[in-house]
Design a protein that fits this description.
- The chain is globular.
- Strand 21 and strand 22 form a beta hairpin.
- The N terminus is likely disordered.
- The chain is α+β, with helices and mostly antiparallel strands.
- The longest helix has 23 residues.
């Protein structure tokens, strides 16, 4: 629903949007509007409303996804809607409230030319307003990525992910799939580590209040933020490769280590950090004590930590660096941890492969239809290690099938695709020598339209039972 319509329909004499804007400015918070510029259920000429009117862009898909190519007779109505409603409403929002951000949605309902006209109008009326990437694909000031993300694919420049507390954007009393607080804390750190931003969505209930389950999540994030907020606000993309224990963010000369999995031996190894470390400490309450840092070799350092994590969701260790950041991009495998997860979203894709949207249901690689396609992780090992190897993937019965190989340098394990969702298949055991090498998944046969939809590999440190 257009924000504009909410404002006009409010039964109060006061202007709640102006009050909200003023409160934001008072506390230094940027103020913006969501505007569904190409999906309007209340107008006869609006795209998307095909329940009440004969319009394209709705549930019936009249004319298909690119209706402006197949049903050009609808174009005058869409142009009229943009001229009579969309652009005038945007002008009014800008004139009345001077927003910092205009967040557009559903651009696929309008022809690209109409989206471009809206973008041109916004630039003319408010050159300084920030416009998200959903007004027009490939345009805007930053890229809008997956809704409800669990993983993030690589992005250059500025980008944003949009999670929800459950699986709904508007409040839904039947949706009780609320995620734990740790999910949001970790996805926030993961986004910042990759140069992105999080736009957190909460849908208010019909009386304007928030669901207690949503409030509990916000309270949990806030409690973590009070202690660790400096590792996020003003911080950005990490120079380090993904770490076994979690993520890292950078701000000035400080590297923030977001430790999701606390090392059992009290030694946090930071892989690939060449820059000297002058000091280290925890952001936890009462943890002012400096931590001992040991240079293990030219690429890696070790930080001495207490035996227990001060925060099981994300305990943050700060490293003060003694110079410009210099990092090795090859991921260090750490056999001291029981499991090492190699996510497909952290791999290099080759051939025609592409990343899925990144939600919990589609955080996999798509388009595996060619024998030349492959997924590769560049890694290194500090010592000889034996791993049990699991492959994690989806394989729709109607489309996927075949066999594949996972190569660890010169060593190989093979598997046959098993149909189903959330497959975790044990491939076997490998013993690997220290040094750098590639881990690569390739197809040996493709029996369907695609091989599989790879989520990643899990390496389980093999420790023979003592007798």
């Amino acid at each position: 629903v257009n924000t504009y319509n909410i404002v006009q329909a409010t039964p109060f004499r006061r202007d709640p949007m102006r009050e909200l804007r003023d409160a934001c400015r008072k506390y230094g918070v940027k103020f913006g509007f969501y505007y569904s510029h190409a999906f309007d259920w209340g107008e006869a000429d609006a795209p998307g409303n095909d329940w009440d009117y004969n319009n394209p862009g709705g549930d019936k898909l009249l004319g298909g996804a690119n209706w402006w190519e197949t049903r050009p007779e609808f174009l005058p109505k869409a142009r009229g809607y943009v001229d009579r409603k969309a652009i005038p409403q945007l002008r009014e929002l800008v004139a009345e409230y001077q927003p910092d951000i205009l967040w557009f949605d559903t651009p696929h309902k309008l022809p690209p030319a109409e989206n471009q006209r809206i973008l041109d109008a916004v630039r003319a009326m408010a050159p300084g307003v920030v416009v998200n990437g959903r007004l027009m694909r490939g345009a805007g000031d930053y890229e809008s990525t997956a809704d409800r993300p669990a993983e993030f694919s690589p992005h250059d420049g500025d980008w944003e992910g949009i999670p929800t507390t459950n699986e709904s954007y508007g409040w839904n009393k039947f949706d009780r799939s609320h995620k734990p607080v740790s999910h949001f804390i970790r996805i926030l750190a993961k986004a910042v580590a990759r140069g992105g931003n999080i736009l957190m969505n909460i849908g208010p209930m019909g009386d304007g209040t928030f669901d207690p389950a949503d409030v509990a999540i916000l309270d949990g994030i806030g409690a973590w933020w009070k202690v660790n907020g400096e590792s996020i606000r003003g911080a950005g993309r990490s120079p380090l490769a993904v770490q076994t224990w979690g993520e890292s963010t950078l701000k000035g000369s400080r590297l923030y280590l977001h430790v999701f999995d606390w090392p059992a031996d009290g030694r946090l190894v930071v892989g690939g950090l060449k820059t000297p470390v002058t000091s280290a400490w925890l952001l936890a309450k009462g943890a002012s004590k400096r931590r001992a840092v040991t240079r293990l070799n030219p690429l890696d350092v070790s930080v001495a930590l207490p035996s227990e994590a001060p925060d099981r969701s994300d305990a943050v260790v700060v490293l003060e660096l003694g110079g410009a950041v210099d990092a090795d991009v090859v991921r260090l495998l750490q056999p001291s941890f029981t499991n090492e997860t190699l996510r497909a979203f952290d791999a290099q894709l080759h051939g025609g492969l592409r990343f899925g949207p990144g939600k919990r249901t589609d955080d996999y690689v798509l388009g595996w239809s060619s024998m030349s396609d492959n997924v590769t992780w560049r890694v290194r090992l500090p010592a000889i290690t034996t791993y049990e190897v699991d492959a994690n993937y989806d394989a729709p019965a109607a489309s996927a099938g075949g066999s594949y190989t996972v190569a660890f340098g010169a060593q190989k394990l093979s598997g046959t695709v098993s149909s189903g969702t959330g497959q975790r298949v044990r491939l076997g055991r490998v013993t690997l020598a220290p040094g750098a090498f590639d881990i690569t998944v390739t197809a040996t046969t493709i029996a369907g339209a695609e091989l599989l939809r790879l989520r990643g590999l899990t390496l389980i440190s093999y420790r023979p039972a003592s007798r």
